[in-house]
Design brief:
Radius of gyration: 17 Å
Helix content: under 10%
Number of helices: 0
Number of strands: 19
Largest sheet: 6 strands, antiparallel
Shape: globular
Structural class: mainly beta
Oligomer: single chain
Strand content: over 45%
Order of helices and strands: EEEEEEEEEEEEEEEEEEE
């Protein structure tokens, strides 16, 4: 099952700590808030220096999609530069992080998964403009158009058109999809739910 989420139809909400804002793309369960989601994907515009919200028990991945990036001080020990050369960072939501902008606002894609229920694998893929294949691997898979004006995602029975910052969610989808469009970059996140020995999802 595939679902297109157009960026143009999304709303912006305040950060958990109130010092910024985020555009929520999708959350599970749908009624989940900052403290009860199993997984959450969003796009944040960071326009000033300041702290990140803390999310205990959550694993996070952040990817730069626009701007010059930012420098993160993590738990007072590590300093990491997120920029065009190193645009992706995975880190714990338990960490205390202070962000400093590098020459102006930064737009960042975020995925968060709560460790007790699920986990995610993340990838960044550059598209050359030639047709290529895409196979969702997770219980839920996310395809986000980070760069490029448009992208066609098609199978034998379906064609979905994307513009920049649109997202497609795939749930339990074993289809091999065809990607066609302008040169650009897609971000891919595969989300896997934790299962017990009998293969049932853990609650």
């Amino acid at each position: 099952m595939s679902t297109l989420i157009p960026f143009a139809g999304l709303a912006t909400v305040p950060w958990k700590n109130g010092s910024g804002s985020t555009t929520q793309i999708a959350v599970d369960p749908p009624e989940g808030d900052f403290d009860t989601f199993d997984w959450r994907i969003s796009l944040a515009t960071i326009s000033e220096d300041g702290p990140f919200s803390i999310f205990p028990g959550v694993e996070r991945t952040l990817a730069l999609v626009d701007g010059h990036g930012l420098t993160l001080d993590i738990d007072g020990n590590d300093r990491v530069l997120i920029g065009k050369d190193e645009p992706v960072l995975a880190f714990s939501g338990d960490s205390e992080i202070e962000a400093t902008l590098n020459r102006g606002p930064s737009v960042d894609f975020n995925i968060m998964t709560r460790s007790e229920t699920c986990y995610h694998l993340f990838g960044r893929r550059r598209l050359t403009g030639n047709p290529s294949g895409f196979a969702p691997r997770g219980d839920v898979s996310v395809l986000f158009l980070a760069e490029g004006d448009s992208l066609s995602v098609s199978s034998d029975g379906e064609r979905i058109g994307m513009v920049r910052f649109d997202t497609i969610l795939f749930r339990n989808d074993s289809t091999v999809w065809r990607l066609e469009g302008d040169p650009g970059v897609v971000l891919i996140a595969d989300i896997f739910f934790n299962h017990d020995d009998d293969g049932d999802e853990l609650e």
